[in-house]
Structure formats: C-alpha cells, structure tokens
User: Fold this.
Amino acid sequence: MPEFLIDAGKTGEDLDIGRFAAGQGGISAEPMIDMHLNELRNLKFKLIRLFLQDYFEVYPKRGVYNWKLLDRSVDAILAAGAKPLMCITFKPKILFPEIDQKKVEPNDLKQWEKLIYELVKHYNTDKKYGIEYWEIANEPDIGEAGGCPYLFTPANYPGFYEHTVKAVKRADPAAKVGGPALANYKSPILPALLKYCSNKKVPVDFVSWHMYNDDPENFKNSILHVKKLLKNYPKLKCETTINEWNVSFGASLMKHLALPEYQPCFIIEVINNMIEQGLSNCCYYHIRNVNGSKDTYSFLSRNGAAGAADGQNYLFNLLGLFDYQGIMRPAYFSFKLLSRLLGKKIILKKQNSHVKALAAYDPYQEEVNILLWNFAVKAPKKEKIKLKLTGLKKGTYGYRRFLLDAKTTSLEEEKKLKVINWEDTKTLNTFKTSFDLAPYGVTMINFKLNKTNKLVLY
Amino acid sequence: MPDININVKAAGEDLDIGRFGLGQGGFTNNAQFDSHIQDLKNLNHKYLRVFVQEYFNVYPAHNVYNWELLDKMVKAILATGAKPILCICIKPKVLFPKNDENIIHPNNYKEWDKLIYEMVKHYKKMGVNMWEVLNESDAGQWGGAPYHTKPEDYAIFYEHIARAAKKADPKARLGGPAVSNASKEGSKITPYLLQYCSDKKLPFDFLTWHRYADNPLRIKESIVTMKNLLKKYPKIKCETGITEWSASFAANYMKYTKNPAYMPNFIIESIYHMVEEGLSFCNYYHIRNLNFTEDIFKEWISKKVLSTFGWCNYCFTHLSLFDYQGQVRPAYFAFKLLSRLAGKRLRIYDVNGNVKVLAAYEEDFKMVNALIWNFAAEKPKKETINLNIFKAEKGDWRYTRYLLDVETNSSEEDKKLKIVTRKIFKAAAQVKETFLLEPYGITQVNFKKI
Assistant:
C-alpha cells in the first residue's frame, strides 16, 4: 500500500511547470492552433515549438523577405500566452535550387546569413517579441523521414550550425541558440557539434533531441546520456530539451486505442522523469492534428512528401492534444492537471511503487497541489493510497480531489476531471486521507487554506 | 456473401474525389463556417458554394460597390482550400425597389450589367471564376432567394450576367439554373435556357440543379435525365453539377433520427452514383446549421413566405455536417472517408447485393483506399465480406481497416472512425480479410506500402 507523507513546509525550487510545454507542426502554413487559444492559455505553456518550413515562403527571391505567413503562426503562439521556439528548417529555392536532403549547404552563405539575421531582427528588434530560443534544423540525422529537408552528417552539421547561429546572435545577442533536435539522441551529430562548439567557442545554449517511445524510462536514460556527454565539454553551459516527444505512434497504435488511460498517465510519468533528471524544458509533440496533402511538402522529394503526408493523415492519431476536428483528447487534461502545480516543488521521499506523486506549494494562493498517478509499462495493479499532509499552517482548508476520466465520451471538464471530494476540513495542521487508484489512474488533490476562517466552498 | 476483389494494377482515371464538395447558406452574411475552417480543410474539397444574397449589401447606392462583407465570406472559403461557386441571388434596392419575387429584371440593365462586371472583376483577383445564376428560381422565395422566374425571363437575365461576367473575366465559368425541380427536365426553365444559349451561342459552362430525396436512386435519375436533355443540344459542351442536395428534410425526419447511420450511407451512396453517372461536381447542402432570424431576410422576402421560414430551425437538423452548436455530425465523417480516396479509381466489378465499393490508388503514396458500405433504402441485411486486394507491388504493406461508428457519443475521430484491424504484411503482394458488415455499416480499408 503506497504511503505518501507530504510536508508542505519542505519545499525546494520553483517547479516552473510551464516549461514542460508543447510544439506544433510542421505540417501546414496555417497557424493550426488558432482555434484553441483559450484552451492553450489555460495550460500556461511557456514555449511552443514551431517549424520554420519552406511553406512560409520567407525568402521568395534574392533580397526579398516575406514574414507575412510566418507572422500568423508566431502571433498565434504569442496569443496562446507562450513564446515560440523557432526551429529553422527552411530551404529557400534560390539558395537550395535542388530538392535533395543531402544538399545542406546554401549556394550563397552570405545570403543565408543575411536571411537568418533579417529573420531574427524582424521578430526581436522590429517587433520586439523577445523570442529566446532558435534551433538549427530538425532531426538532421534522419532527414526527410522527419518531415524536413536536411540530412546532415557529423561532418557537415557543425559548420552549418556555426554560420546560422552567428547570424542569430548578430541580430540578437541575447537569443539562445541550439540544436541539433536529433531523432536519435545517440546520433554522432551531437558529440561532433559539442566538440566543434567547445573548440571553436561557438555558442550553444541548448541541446535538443526527440523521443517517441512507450517507456518513460527511456526518456530518463536519454537525459542521463546527454548530460553525461555534456560533462565532456565543461566549457559549454547548455540547457537540455526534449522538444518532440510522445508515445511511439506507429507500432503501438492499437494498444493505445484500446487503453485510452495509458497516454495521459504516460505524459505525467515522463514529465516527472524530466523534472527528476533536471531537463530544462520540453515540447510535447503536438498540439493539433490536421489533415494535409503531399503538396504541403513541395520542398521534399516525391517519396519524402508522400511519407510526410501519410504520417500526418494516418499515423498521428495519438499525437494531438486536439484531434483532426479539434476535439480535445484525454492528453490535454494531463497538461491541465500539471498546469495546476504552481509554486515551489515539495520535496518528496522516493517511492518504490508504481504510484508516484508530484506536489507543489503555492505561497501566493496558500495552497498545496498534489498530482498522483499509477503507472507501469505493463499494467500496474489497483492501489490503495494513504496520504498524510503535514507542515500546514493551522486553519481550515478546502479539500478537493479530482480524477481524470480518459474513457468518458463527454468533452465537459467536469466529466473529464471528475470531482471526487469537495469539502471543508475542520481546523487542522495535518490532513490524512486514503483512496483507491486504478491502473493508470490519475488524481489530483487541491488543498487550500481558508484565510478568512470562513468556509471557502460555498 | 459479397466478394470484393481489388486489383491494384487496374487503376483507371483520376477519381478526383474533391470535386464532390459542399455548400453553405444562405442564412447570414457571416462566414457561418468560420469556426470550422480547419475541419473543412481536412476534407480537401475543390468547391464550396455560397449564396450571394442581398445581406452582403454589395450595391448599397448607385455606382457604389461594397465588397467588404462578401470578401470575408470569399476569404473564409479560400481558407478552407476550396474555390467558391458564387450563386448570384442579389436584388439591390436601387435596382429592384419593390419587394416582389416576380420582378426579375432590374429597372436599369446597364447599371445591373456594370454591377456584375465590377463584381466579377473584383473577385477575379481573388481567384473566383465560377458564377451560378440564381437559386431555385422555379420555386422563388420558397427556395430562400428572391427570384421567381419564367423560362424566357430567366434566359434574358442569364444572358445579361453571362455577357457582363465574360467581359470582366474571359475565363469566368457561367452556369445555372439551379432549379429545385429536377424530377423531369428541371422545370421548363432548363430546356428553355439550353435552347436559348445554344441558339445565341451564349457561354454556358455548367448546368446545375438541386435534389433532395431519401433514395439515392432519385439523385442518379436526375443525372441521367439531365445528361439525356443535354444530348438534345450538341453545341453545348458543359459540366454538370448538383449544387444542392441532401436527404429530404421534412417528411422523413424521424427516420434519420432513429437511424443515424442512414445519412452517412445516403451521402456515400449518392456520391457513388454521381461518380458512376459522370457528374462533374456537387455541393452537398450544407456545412453548418444556424438558427434562423427573420430580420436578415425581411427586406427581400415577402412577409407571407418569411412567416413560414421558422421551419429552418427544426427541419434542417439532419442536413448539416455541423449542428446548430457546431458539433460535428456523422455526415462529416462520410466526407472524411471519401476525402481519403485520392488518386486513380480502381474499378470493382461484380459485387453482389447491397454492398458497394469505391476504391482508389495513389501512386506517390503507394496506397489503396477502399470505401465499402452496406446500403439499401429499405434496410439491407448483414453481410459477410470477403476482401481480396491483389497485384500489389511486392513489399511490406500496412493494412488498416476503419469502421464508422455513428452511435458513439464521443466526438473524437478515434472513436468515430474506429480502427478495427491493423496489420503489417511482410513481403506481400496480396491481402485478404473476411469481415461482417452490419446494415448501413461503413468501413474503409487503407493499404499502404511501407
């Protein structure tokens, strides 16, 4: 029987939960998320990763910059309350006349650097958007298979990276630059980049990689691997980010469709691992599914375009927080629960069960939020949970407990996040409760001080 | 037990499924579907028909053109990825001072022609080139638009618009008469118009009519009738379009409510007949239900007719892809499944009984999509299907079968379009599956080389 002793007074650093955010795209020139701005604002994401693909037509001809289409997507992200993480992955025709994923050098580096300079200047000087993160290429280790037109090697990525980031920094010295957004975190591109940057003092403010896998343990291992690698380059002070991630969406599709409670619980388990391993931030892939055609990918080869459109239309089912018609999927509510973990992280004892907890104390609201979930890759068993909350200021509290229902067909929040308890306590400074948690169950406790000593729950 | 044999090598002409599109309206000057742009984009339609009604106020005063409201509508259509078919139904007050459906001709044809010229010129810049002349002018106001014409008046009116439009845009495509009665020859208006255009060598690019019926065979019959009619006018080379169609929306309301699978079946079966009979395009009526308000019509629809329009609030329930509150209805998913039939048509012969198939092969994707449904106007029986896809390029193939679930309360696509089979076939050139298909069942097979 898992027992949780939670001392509200024993807090660590600000949990800063909003940094565990999401990405969108790169499957359309349309903003895609613009129908969901309120829902996204609710989640308090700090970042939304955006693919700067060729369909934005930012450089239609020599010396002509066109930000009109890209502005729409950037503005939508800002309207969602987040800042974009700009993943530079376009290949303007005049600089890359041939469609070939292996041709990764522009035919005129000066023009390329000017384009990057103008891009950053447009958003951070002219528009004063203060966009912090600029990432160079997307999944350069797999090229078109990742839906983007660059297939790099360890030999040619660092040089391209250097030219690009120097242009970014010239336009905005405060910008953070990084990459390589690997599909496989063990790709030799990453050590090659780190070595190059360390030796040549090229800025690298963050390193990024991706992971689609059903086992949250593998996410943890990837963070350990990259952090270990970074220790070899003590001159580099880098943030770390997994800026595309989700369950494996090909092979395991049927499993997940049959068990809709797996994914919401998996999301929380993965983010807990990220917190535990000190990952700087993440972008869950992705916000909204949309259908598309191969024409969207005119910058890829015929096969590459067909593969990208096939993925978008037939394989993305599990990925969106919103499905193809904009219907909220259960995964959305995992992020909603996580978004409630405001304030400082409460330090908890390590648990030796499948049930884990993440808790935060918000001194402003004088409330404790505790998220508990019951996860294992192979079905965990139902658990009886005992929870004791100590370190509370003496007073009466509003006690609420919510249970995520991933199976209900209703879209109403009250049905998805069912209220199990909604009551006032007597005057106390220690609170005890116990309840059952089903396999892949996700529950959240909100415990809030009634400051006026009146009932908070009318 | 129907056998369905799909020969991947037997790809014929491009199915061009996107030409079987949608229509909206004509209730308000707002782009009524603007909260569904992405959902419509998903359907990959080529055409979306809207009514250019008086509420757009395009000609508020002599020589004053106001495109602001109509621009919004056109931009919304373009944002869905479709091209607008603009059905001209306006009656500007300055040219038609009296509210009378029987007054067809403007009080100043020179000014009217100029208005049409300016409108076509303006929208040419936005890529609009399909113009339909009037809506259900055989029914007049009962069809929601303010013209009730005799054949000879319609023809003259058409000629003015056609000439003005072609002057503004020689590439403009003109058509009509969008009659409500397509049971014989589309009222007397249609043959008269064809004769008139043939004799006067007027541009005539597409022949249109409407059809609301419970049995898709009525839709098929209307195409056969119109195609036979066209044969009498060999000089006219035109496309054919049913620019409004759906199930009959009053008499059988309870039937659709009790059997929610009927409507998506009806849609697929009807489009199947359209494909078979060589219809050029269609616009299913319609995208989004809205509750009706009198005010918007009162300037140009008589009080008597308007007083009966309240039925729009009750009888349109089962027509739309999105209901009055914008909730997606099963009909949407019929179009979604159809939209997947990209590429060249794979003809399937000799399928027994009520089960039918529409299939296509997309060479770039190396993908077969086959839509299979079990429809009859009166209840069909449950069927066991033997599916055999053969002569595929040898290799690894991903086989996925979806089933449309119209009963689920969930709006999630994964629940509506349930994946019932998913397998990888290694080094295969053929796949077989035997499965049951319930009465009104709709299933889709996606077979993709990986």
In short: The interface with chain A takes residues 35, 37-39, 41-44, 79, 328, 332, 336, 339-340, 342, 362, 364-367, 400, 408-415, 418-419, 422, 446, 448 of chain B (CB under 8 Å). Chain B has twelve helices and 18 strands. The CA atoms of residues 256 and 366 of chain B lie 38 Å apart.
